[in-house]
Each structure stands twice: as structure tokens, then as C-alpha cells.
Amino acid sequence: MAECNIDHGQKDVKKKLISQEEFLPDDLVVKMHMYLKDIRPQEELNEVFHLLKKYDTASGQEREERNEKLRKYVAEIE
Length: 78
Prior knowledge:
Distance between the termini: 29 Å
Largest sheet: none
Oligomer: single chain
Radius of gyration: 12 Å
Number of domains: 1
Number of helices: 4
Strand content: under 5%
Order of helices and strands: HHHH
Structural class: mainly alpha
Protein name: Group-specific protein
């Protein structure tokens, strides 16, 4: 992914998640909402935002790679 110098706030990440929900696996959507209920480090928010950005236009393989990275952030959430 291209380098981005913009810090994406928690609200921005939640909006991006909501806009991409229908394209993400259901279990991941639920866990991502739980993940975003807590305050997260800026670096994580930026990474998650970019994993969600244009998710709907990503190829199947690209989606799988993004899902894997997103699942690492929500691994501790049951």
C-alpha cells in the first residue's frame, strides 16, 4: 500500500468500516466494531483504515490478504 501521511481518527475508521461492511466477512465486521470501541494507537488506526479503503474494488486474493491482516488486529476479541 502507498505511504500516507494523514492520521485517520477512530471516527474516520468507523465510517470506512460501515461503508465497506457489505463486502467484508460477517464475523470480521462484528469483531472490527468491537475492536473500534476501544481507543487504539494512531498507527493501528491508519493501517486499518487503509486495509478497509477500496476493499470493495479489491480482487479476491487482495481481499483475502487484507482479511488476514485485519484478523491480526482482532485476534484477542472473542
